[in-house]
Amino acid sequence: MAAPAKSVKRVLITGATGFLGGHLLAVAPEHWTLVAGLRDWEKAEEWGGMEMDLADPLSWRKRLFDLAPDAILHAAALADTGACEKDPDQSFQINVKATEALAKYAGSRGIPFVFCSTDLVFDGTAAPYAPQAAPTPVNVYGRHKAEAEEAVRREHPGATIARLPLMYGASANPKRGLIGGLRTGLIAGRPMTLFHDEYRTAAHALRVAEGLWAWLLAAASGEHRSGTWHFGGPQRLSRYAMALEVAQTWDLDASAVRPVAQASVNTGSPRPADVSLDSSATVDQGWKHGSLDEELAAIKGAD
Ligand SMILES: NC(=O)c1ccc[n+]([C@@H]2O[C@H](COP(=O)([O-])OP(=O)(O)OC[C@H]3O[C@@H](n4cnc5c(N)ncnc54)[C@H](OP(=O)(O)O)[C@@H]3O)[C@@H](O)[C@H]2O)c1
């Protein structure tokens, strides 16, 4: 990651070390300098980024003003629903207060701000959800993301709120991640129980990353990108259905995969049944979301 140069536009990106962050870095615009906001100073030194523990917004306030970024892409979060349920105070600090602080800064400077929210702001009883649908969260993570959205709207009416779905894609460990994990399990013939009645409009993280950059760059060039946008994939799928598609793609035996009902499993936090997103407005605006078939074929081709 290059050191910031004055003449080049700089974007502060949070969450660069995360799953989505890896994909955001992979398709980052070449003509912008990226500065990663990172949790600890060692990593910040290593990456040439900015130390920024989101759990402690006051600690990085001055550094943010000194950096004076030209845009902010805020992808960091406490994104594990179980961890949010266990430690709601930490979730509130990271997911709500830090987002509010970043939105306030961006709003006061009038710079583009893209915030990564989630389909889990919905309760799953009225899918597909349009961007205008009112949040109805059922767990701490969803509630805090919904509160963060409100803070962003209040502090920076020109900001983009991007509601993201369940994402799949390459992970640092190829055996992990949604597709990698399913494929590894299928190859090993490992018994897997997967929800057949919990639906998501899953999308490839690379397509989502491309969309987020496109929205940020469009906002930077003065195009209208404010408000709430949905970045869901084109198909409403259960994890069980996804496993069958993965099995079909690589011609693997799926007999050890057992469909289970969501209600029969205690996952530690309430889970909405169907948070499928209606992303037609985002697609109409030019976002290309690949179908699961296309993405699996591409992953297979790259093997
Ligand atoms: N993955 C999905 O399917 C999905 C679905 C819907 C929405 N989203 C949203 O998309 C965004 C990215 O998700 P993800 O899957 O990439 O999450 P992830 O893999 O869990 O990564 C989270 C990122 O946030 C950073 N972070 C966490 N706490 C921090 C703190 N206190 N200070 C600074 N950075 C901190 C992490 O840094 P460290 O490396 O230091 O921990 C990491 O870079 C999140 O906003 C999430 O809510 C994700």
Can you walk through the features of this model?
With 303 residues, this protein is an alpha/beta fold. 41% of the residues lie in helices and 16% in strands. A seven-stranded parallel sheet has the order 3-2-1-4-5-6-11, sandwiched between helices. The chain has a two-stranded parallel sheet with strand order 7-10. It has a two-stranded parallel sheet with strand order 8-13. Helix 6 (140-155) links the parallel strand 5 and strand 6 (160-164). Helix 3 (57-67) packs parallel to helix 5 and helix 9 (239-249) packs across helix 11 (292-301). The longest helix has 22 residues, at 88-109. It starts with 9 loop residues before the first strand and ends with a helix. Mean pLDDT is 94; it is low at 1-7. It binds NADP nicotinamide-adenine-dinucleotide phosphate (NAP). The site of NADP nicotinamide-adenine-dinucleotide phosphate (NAP) has 23 residues, from helix 1 and strand 5.
The CATH topology of the largest domain comes to Rossmann fold
- Strand order in the sheet with the most strands: 3-2-1-4-5-6-11
What molecules are bound to this protein?
NADP nicotinamide-adenine-dinucleotide phosphate
Low-pLDDT regions: 1-7
Order of helices and strands: EHEHEHEHHEHEEHEEEHEEHEHH
Give descriptors for this structure.
16% strand, 303 residues, 2 domains, Rossmann fold, globular, disordered N terminus, alpha/beta, single chain, two-stranded parallel sheet, UDP-galactose 4-epimerase, domain 1
